[in-house]
Each structure stands twice: as structure tokens, then as C-alpha cells.
Amino acid sequence: MNYTYIMKCRDGSLYTGWTNDLERRVREHNAGKGAKYTKSRRPVVLAYFEEFATREEAMSREYAIKRLKRKDKLRLLESEDNPVKKRKAGVD
To answer: Could you write out the three-class secondary structure of 1-44?
Structure first.
């Protein structure tokens, strides 16, 4: 499985990326090995993700999300369909 994700950084900024191992990638970001952008903004918290069958789909969605305005990214985070939000609420 491949994922496109949004991390919320300590300073409130948002970082978008893609990976094939979501839990590992969160650990890497928080260890300072994820991306130069998040290294100085730790800790980061997984705020949103989507699943894809292929790497190409995940990368394409990452590109689309990166082009969104901040308010539109925040709408994704607040969406009822957000898997992170569902996990916190105990809904699957």
C-alpha cells in the first residue's frame, strides 16, 4: 500500500509527502531523518492520509495536495472522511 500524508508541524505548518510505510515515515520525520523541512519543526503529528494501490497514484495526489491553498488543506484535515480523525474517534 502507498500513502499520501499531511503532517502538522510544531509551528503549525503543514508538510505533505508520500510513502509506502506510514508508521515508519512518521518515526523518521520525528527522528529528524524525514525531510529537511520537518527537521527543524519537530515534533510532527500525522494529521491526514490517503491510501493508494500504486506509488504513481500516491505521488500524483501528493503533487495535487501541495498545490492546494492552506485553507483547502485544513479542510481535508477537518473532513469527516479523514482516517486520522476516525482513528481518534475510535471509528473504522
So the answer is: CEEEEEEECCCCCEEEEEECCHHHHHHHHHCCCCCHHHHCCCCC
Residue 81: inside a domain: no
Q: What is the CATH number of the domain that holds 66?
A: 3.40.1440.10
Confirm if 76 and 48 have CB atoms less than 8 A apart.
Answer: yes
Q: Tell me if 83 is assigned to some domain.
A: no
Question: Tens digits of per-residue pLDDT, 6-26?
Answer: 999 999 999 999 999 999 999
Q: Hey, which residues does 75 pair with through a beta bridge?
A: none
Residues above pLDDT 70, as percent of the chain = 96
Range of the domain at 19: 2-75
Q: Does 80 reside within a domain?
A: no
Q: How many CB atoms lie within 10 A of CB 10?
A: 12
How much is the average pLDDT of 65-70? Answer: 98
